[in-house]
Amino acid sequence: MGILYVVATPIGNLQDITLRALDTLKAVDAIAAEDTRHTSGLLSHFGISKKLIAVHEHNEHQSAERLLLQLNAGDSIALVTDAGTPGISDPGAVVVDLVRKAGVKVVPVPGVSAVITALSASGIAQNGFLFHGFLPASGAARRKALEALKSQEVTLVFYEAPHRIVDSIVDLCAVLGAERRITFARELTKTFETIHSCSLAEAQLWLEADANQQRGEFVLLVEAATVKDAEEIPEDAVRVLKLLLAELPLKQAVKLATEITHEKKNVLYEFALQLKQQAE
């Protein structure tokens, strides 16, 4: 039985490919690619010649079955997309899922990911992040998705295409609030790489001041929602929490207080810690 290698490829600068990725691409029997023409250019640059199989969003289910037959016959196959890591807002997850369920070995060959690349250069030090990928294309659906995310107390990370960037920024500002900060990571690792931070109130003006800043692929990193201060917790919730803390361990008290008051667990937990520290 063959092996499916999930191979990350550069998002712009070809020198970002790993030595292991090159060795893998040279060794496999075939390469499953999102766009065979694009991958042909990558392989040609590194002097690699391999059979290419098209696996894109419109044929992924059918291609997965075909790849499984080849893997069962003993072929080893590398799965790549046009840029970055397969399965991360790109085709690949369907193939990997089917292959793993069939008992075929799947080996990740890690490398570049636009999400991690953007975060590493943003200077954002908040507690964790939520990667959403691309927002819906239509305005109503996009605003609905943002409403569901607005209270997340972690950095929000999105991908966005150039033809939708202004509309998306308008909706981000309207739904999440003009005061939140956003970091644009545009054309990462490429000639016109740009990393810019500002408030959402300033973001549209920054984009429209220079049409060139609306070109290329974007990673958008939006500041987390502000955690409620203790004084913002409703009095009834504070009373319930204090009563429970007097009788129960902290974690159990917070769990019950959350169920009773429907306040956010992390907010009550932080407040409970403050109460405990004051008591000590």
TrEMBL record:
Keyword S-adenosyl-L-methionine assigned: yes
Catalytically driven reaction(s): cytidine(1402) in 16S rRNA + S-adenosyl-L-methionine = 2'-O-methylcytidine(1402) in 16S rRNA + S-adenosyl-L-homocysteine + H(+)
Gene3D superfamilies linked: Cobalt-precorrin-4 Transmethylase, Domain 1, Methyltransferase, Cobalt-precorrin-4 Transmethylase, Domain 2
UniProt domain RsmI HTH: residue ranges: 231-276
EC number, UniProt record: 2.1.1.198
Residue ranges of every copy of the Tetrapyrrole methylase domain listed in the record: 4-203
Keyword Disulfide bond appears in the UniProt entry: no
Domain of life (superkingdom): Bacteria
Cross-referenced CDD domains: RsmI
Molecular function via GO: rRNA (cytosine-2'-O-)-methyltransferase activity
Keywords assigned: Cytoplasm, Methyltransferase, rRNA processing, S-adenosyl-L-methionine, Transferase
One matching Pfam family: TP_methylase
Main location: cytoplasm
GO CC terms: cytoplasm
Location within or outside the cell: Cytoplasm
Purpose: Catalyzes the 2'-O-methylation of the ribose of cytidine 1402 (C1402) in 16S rRNA.
Protein family membership: Belongs to the methyltransferase superfamily. RsmI family.
Protein name, entry field: Ribosomal RNA small subunit methyltransferase I
Organism: Methylotenera mobilis (strain JLW8 / ATCC BAA-1282 / DSM 17540)
Taxonomic lineage of the native organism: Bacteria, Pseudomonadati, Pseudomonadota, Betaproteobacteria, Nitrosomonadales
